[in-house]
Every structure is written in structure tokens, then in C-alpha cells.
Design brief:
The complex is a heterodimer of chains A (417) and B (150). Chain A has 417 residues and is α/β, with parallel strands linked by helices. Helices cover 41% and strands 16% of the residues of chain A. Chain A folds into 2 domains: 151 residues, Aspartate Aminotransferase, domain 1 (Alpha-Beta Complex); 255 residues, Aspartate Aminotransferase, domain 2 (3-Layer(aba) Sandwich). Chain A contains 15 helices and 15 strands. Chain A starts with a helix and ends in a 5-residue tail after the last helix. Chain B has 150 residues and is an alpha+beta fold. Helices cover 43% and strands 17% of the residues of chain B. Classes of the chains: A alpha/beta (417), B alpha+beta (150).
Chain lengths: 417, 150
């Protein structure tokens, strides 16, 4: 606890200056925003960057010969290059912009899955997947006849690596897993999962939506085949996401969406397609979103992801310690191993939606529900849970106020524990 | 608004009451009501003889608002005709939408279910309060062909 308190008191960056960049903290209220795993807030720098794009650089990218079209194209190219550098990709060609991680994972399912899987093959995913890396594979399994199998969890809410080794075989063609659970906070050993998949010649798909905001991702070190994340969970705008894919795999895949700017030559009855990454980006793209995401990355890098991760871990550890002191709280969060700053919990004898409503009354924003993980909740034996999730602009004081507000939940709901 | 105007004693008591919370083996109709976003899940059963609802019970899980609302609905429609029950649905939904605000009318018709009046100020919880009422509306629509209330 001493080390945690020390980190919370001195995070190694200027917390007050950081907080002054977030306009929501100026709202009357104030709002204690602990729903960062759903979507983060955006600093002024991101909003100003997007504002500048729409005011002074607005043209249709990749088309036309005028200077505004060129400005939009340059904004797109620079943003893509920023993303490539951020995740350690070899080339900008491997960075496909999408609307969000869900769309990115659908590209893999549709363009790779439907074309490469058949009856007898196995798709291996995990018990803790978000629906975005679950329902898409269900769909592919139903369409192709491939089997969908699940890596289960240990009693400590960690991925059961023994179960993984038992289930993977030469039939396994793809292993798709969350690099950080949006509910439990669990961060599995992605490198080990990928290494084992490679031993069986299976491709790997990493859902990094909850990892990229907190931990430095490096796709070359990970050696994954695909990786997806959303901009809005890491200070960027809603509506922009990224699919990383190894270029030789992307090249062999057919397009996902057809239309403008993803083509090369269009004849009456046949077409050839554009080079990467444009082959997967049909239609006019969201360059406003791209520059916002690039600005968000710059903001994170200015503070430093290592500092961010250390501080957020301290926030989560502090919160878990405080929650553990309350006898009417049940926590779903690993005790051992790496974990992200998302903590699922329940107030005994109170439904999460009542908890969230009462906390909202106290200005505390958390998430209540199944968090797009119904199979995980069935495993937990809960219809729904509450989730508090942190970002580097949260403070110890906010957690103290959250814990105080939980006491009022106990009173309002007349819980006698 | 004070939280206790939402989580009133009437709602807290009814949310935990088992008076109508049980299966009905001789039900003439049962429908499931489900809110996918939050997981409120009820099965509402009624026993209808001629035009009269002689019994109403439910089983299910969900937040205090949804469970109290379902329990109060069962007590309220038991002994009513289908036509009277349909009128109650219209009054309750009208109250939640903020269209019917006269406390005298609401109290006269809805009795303790007037406790949900303040939900009209909490859009994110409206679905919890109306779940049972929409489920009953579906049962009546299937039985009589009456169109469901908007």
C-alpha cells in the first residue's frame, strides 16, 4: 500500500496540468468519470486538432488536384504513419483505418475467415472475449462449418494456459483473443499465446481495444498476425479504429467493402484492386477521426505510456484494496498477474443498474450491465456487474469519493451486511 | 430530486416482495420481457377466465425498479377485466412519458404504482419501469388483437 500511495501522490507527470486539458472536469457537478473502458474523455488538444482539420485542411483525401484535397491527403498519410510508429508496425501499408475495433475484427472474420476456414477446422477464442471478438467468429463458424472452441479461465480470472495447450491442435487455424479484458482487467500473456499458436501454424488475432490505451503495444515484438483497437478508448474521437495486419496476409485477402478509391482498374464486369492499405478502405475516409487519433497518440506519448501504465495500475490497486474493505462488495478481478485498470464488482443484494443510478446521483460515472460479454457473465454466474475503469486523469481523491458513494448505495438499497 | 423519491419505501418493499413472485402452473398466457442492454428478465403469467384476469404472477431477475414495477402490476391487474388492464397500461405509460401528471387520477387508477412517477425524469431507467407493462400489453394484444400502446 505504501508504494501505491507514493505513486498516487507523485505519478511522475503533472497531474493537475493534465486535468486542465479535459473540459468535462469544468462541468458543474463535478463528474467523477470512472467509465474509461467504455470510452475515455478527450483532451482539448485532440478536439483542437480535429477542429483545425475541418477548418483549414478539409478536402476529399486521395482525390482531386487542388490544395485542400492535398492537405486532407497529407493529414491522412501523417496520421497513418503516426499509428504505424505507435504500434511498432514495419509499414504504413499494414495500418487499415476502420470505424472501431469491432469493424476491424469483422474485416478479419469476413475477408480472412470466410475464405480460409472449412469444416474440420477450429477457431479458438477465450471465455473473456467482448462480443466484438466473439459473435463475428460465431458467424464464421456457422457459415464455414468450422468449430468454435473456448479457452477457459482459472479461479483467479486468468486465462487458463493449460486449457489452451490442451485445446490447440493442428486443426486450430486461428486464435483470437483479448489482450486485456474489458470486464476483469486480466492481461493475458499475449507473447506466450502467440508463440504457442505459431507452433501449430495458427494465425493470431489480438483485440487490443483495452490494451492500447494503457500499455505500449509493439506488433513486431508480439509477432501477431492481426491486431485491432479503437481510437475512442484512448482519447481519440468516436468512429475511428485501426486494424493492423501483416502485409503478406492482407495482400492475400480479398477486399471487405467494395467501392470508391479501393480499386485500380474497373471494367464492365471485372475490377482490380488498389494496393494496401487502400484496398480495405472503400469510400471517403474519416480523416477528421484520423488526425484526432494521431493527436491522441501524441498526447499519450508526451506523458509517456510507461508512466501512464504505472499510475493507472496504482489507481486500480488502490481501488481494489478499498473495495475489499467493504463486506457487501464482491470483486471480479485477478489477484495475480498483469491486469489493466478495469474492475468488475457487485454490491451484494443490489442490482448493478440501481447501483449505477445511485452513484450517478453522487456524480460518479461507472458502467453497469454485461459490458458486451454475456458468455463471460454466464461463466461468472452474474446477469450483470458494475465496472469502474480508470484513466491517468483520475485521482486518489476521486476513488475515495466513489467508495464513500458506495456507502450510500448500501443505505438507499437498505442492505444489511 | 432526492434519490429517495426514486428508491421510495414502496419501491424497495415491492422489489423484494415474494407475494406475486412464483410460477403459475395453470396460467392461460405467459410472456417473457427482456431488456438486452441491462439484463432485466421477467416471465409474466396471467390466468384469464372469460374477460377477467383472475391471477397474475411473475418470476425473473433485474433491478429494483423493474422488479417492483412487475410486482405492483400483478397486484393491480388481479381481478380486473382485460379492458380495465389495458386502460391501466395506458395510464401507466402516459405517466412515465410525462403525459398524464394529475396525481389524483394517477393515484385513483394506479394506486401504489404512482411511486414510479419520478422515473419520467430519468430516461435511462424508463425501460426498467415499463418492462412488465409492455409485457402485459403483448399478452393482451395476442389475446384480443388490440394494437399495442405506443
Amino acid at each position: 500500500m505504501k508504494a501505491i500511495l507514493k505513486m498516487l501522490a507523485n505519478p511522475g507527470f503533472d497531474l493537475e496540468r493534465v486535468r486542465s486539458d479535459f473540459a468535462y472536469l469544468e462541468l458543474d457537478g463535478p463528474i467523477i468519470y470512472l467509465d474509461n473502458a467504455a470510452t475515455t474523455q478527450r483532451p482539448n488538444q485532440v478536439i483542437e486538432r480535429m477542429d483545425n482539420f475541418y477548418r483549414f485542411e478539409n478536402g476529399n483525401p486521395l482525390r482531386g488536384a487542388h490544395r485542400l484535397g492535398t492537405a486532407a491527403t497529407e493529414a491522412m498519410v501523417k496520421s497513418r504513419s503516426k499509428v504505424a510508429q505507435f504500434i511498432g508496425s514495419k509499414s504504413e501499408k499494414e495500418i487499415i483505418f476502420t470505424r472501431n475495433a469491432s469493424e476491424a475484427l469483422n474485416i478479419v472474420a469476413y475477408a480472412w475467415g470466410l475464405n480460409n476456414l472449412k469444416s474440420g477446422d477450429q477457431i479458438l477464442i477465450t471465455r473473456m472475449e467482448h462480443h466484438s471478438n466473439f459473435v463475428n467468429w460465431q458467424f464464421v463458424a456457422q457459415k464455414t462449418g468450422a468449430e468454435l472452441a473456448f479457452i477457459e479461465l482459472t479461479d483467479d480470472y486468468q486465462l487458463d494456459m493449460q486449457d489452451y495447450r490442451n485445446k490447440i491442435s493442428e486443426r486450430t487455424k486461428i486464435v483470437a483473443f483479448s489482450a486485456a479484458s474489458n470486464v476483469l482487467g486480466t492481461i493475458p500473456d499475449a507473447a506466450a499465446i502467440i508463440r504457442i499458436a505459431k507452433e501449430h501454424n495458427a494465425l493470431t488475432v489480438v483485440d487490443a481495444a483495452q490494451l492500447a490505451p494503457h500499455v505500449q503495444v509493439n506488433v513486431q515484438k508480439m509477432d501477431c498476425d492481426f491486431l485491432a483497437f479503437s481510437g475512442h478508448k484512448m482519447l481519440g474521437p468516436l468512429g475511428i479504429g485501426v486494424l493492423y495486419g501483416k502485409s503478406e496476409i492482407l495482400q492475400a485477402m480479398p477486399p471487405f467493402l467494395y467501392g470508391g478509391e479501393m480499386i485500380e482498374y474497373v471494367e464492365d464486369h471485372t475490377s482490380t484492386f488498389a494496393q494496401l492499405p487502400y484496398k480495405f478502405e472503400a469510400g471517403t475516409q474519416d480523416v477528421g477521426g484520423m488526425v484526432g487519433l494521431a493527436a491522441a497518440i501524441e498526447y499519450l506519448e508526451d506523458i509517456g505510456l510507461e508512466k501512464i501504465a504505472a499510475y493507472e495500475t496504482a489507481l486500480a490497486d488502490y481501488c481494489v484494496a478499498k473495495l475489499e474493505e467493504l463486506p457487501y462488495i464482491e470483486i471480479y478481478h485477478p489477484k495475480q498477474g498483469a491486469k489493466g485498470p478495469a474492475i468488475a464488482f457487485n454490491v451484494k443484494n443490489a442490482h448493478p443498474h440501481d447501483v449505477a443510478t445511485i452513484l450517478d446521483y453522487h456524480g460518479v460515472a461507472i458502467r453497469a450491465g454485461h459490458h458486451c460479454t454475456q458468455p463471460l457473465h454466464r461463466y461468472l454466474g452474474q446477469n450483470s456487474t458494475n465496472r469502474a475503469s480508470f484513466a491517468f486523469y483520475n485521482t486518489k481523491k476521486e476513488i475515495d469519493l466513489f467508495i464513500e458513494a458506495l456507502e450510500d448505495v448500501k443505505n438507499v438499497m437498505q442492505i444489511d451486511i | 430530486m432526492d434519490l429517495r423519491q426514486i428508491y421510495s419505501q414502496i419501491i424497495m418493499d415491492n422489489s423484494r416482495s415474494n407475494k406475486y413472485r412464483h410460477e403459475m402452473p395453470d396460467a392461460t398466457a405467459t410472456e417473457r420481457g427482456y431488456n438486452p442492454s441491462c439484463g432485466d428478465d421477467i416471465h409474466l403469467s396471467v390466468k384469464i377466465e372469460d374477460d377477467l384476469i383472475v391471477d397474475a404472477t411473475f418470476i425473473g431477475t433485474g433491478c429494483a425498479i423493474s422488479q417492483a414495477s412487475t410486482s405492483l402490476l400483478c397486484g393491480l391487474i388481479k381481478g380486473k377485466t382485460i379492458k380495465q388492464a389495458k386502460h391501466l397500461i395506458e395510464t401507466f405509460l402516459g405517466m412515465i412519458k410525462g403525459e398524464i401528471t394529475d396525481d389524483e387520477i394517477l393515484e385513483e387508477e394506479l394506486e401504489d404504482a404512482i411511486a414510479f412517477k419520478n422515473i419520467s425524469t430519468m430516461p435511462q431507467r424508463v425501460r426498467c419501469a415499463v418492462l412488465a407493462w409492455r409485457t402485459l400489453d403483448l399478452i393482451i394484444a395476442k389475446q384480443t388483437g388490440t394494437p399495442m400502446t405506443e
